[in-house]
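Entry 14. Ran structure prediction on the chain below.
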Amino acid sequence: MDLNPSPFPASGTATPEEEAEGQPSRGSEAAAVPAPPGGRIVLAATPIGNTGDASARLVELLGTADIVAAEDTRRLHRLVQSLGVTVAGRVISYHEHNEAAKTAELLEQVRAGKTLVMVTDAGMPSVSDPGFRLVEGAVACGLTVTAVPGPSAVLTALALSGLPTDRFCFEGFLPRKAGERASRLADLAGERRTMVFFEAPHRLEVMLRALRERFGAERRVAVCRELTKTYEEVIRGSLGELLQWAETTEVRGEIAVVLAGAPEQAPGTPEDHVAAVNELVSQGIRLKEAVAAVAEDVRVSKRELYSAVLAAR
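Output, structure tokens:
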């Protein structure tokens, strides 16, 4: 005799309520959700440097997929050679210059039941790399999209930077034109999360100078170079120090830049922020809206700030 009967029915036994309502028993197989039609798209992360980081799933898919869409077919060839894999499927070049033209063709192949693996030169497709159009189209068509996770330059740089990792944002490459770059950085002026950027080595000095001008010479930063490769290097310091380093160093390799977020600032008194409210009002914003915006940004009382603005007039 079971002295401690379970409050739940044994597996495979229907409850009286299920029998009364004609429901399947708990031991029966639940009604399956219909799978999307066609084949599937797999976004497969590739090593960012060390080929030993390739996952077993990546190796398997490269050898069994019907189609491999590659950002650079030459790099794919070198990768599969180093992994000892023979690609049995069709290899298609798929990059930023032909995405728009080839996406429909690839989606049609998936709709017909093919398994398509998308790989880029390094890391996860669609993250500052080709792949977004393919995913966007697949979602619109109701096709299956999944991923083989793996190496990520963004997360690797963030983890090695020595800067806060609890909250961060990825900003990709900054605009090359000075005006557009300054505008983007102005939008990030109050960003408190750690920021991760990519940059080409020959533009690193220009980038660090722009960062110093916007965020100040003391803001902490890390330049991560050649991650997971033989000559991996992480340079950490202030923007002033790293700009000086870049000015005197011939920087090579793949670059990720990790920048500390804006420091927490004391809210100060309402009187300290009257000028900011008046600046918004001069731009055509109503007084109450300007007060609310500034009060939220600097964390002071709206009522006290409103009173301070009126008192200053």
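Confidence is low (pLDDT under 50) at residues 1-30. Will compare against last week's run tomorrow.
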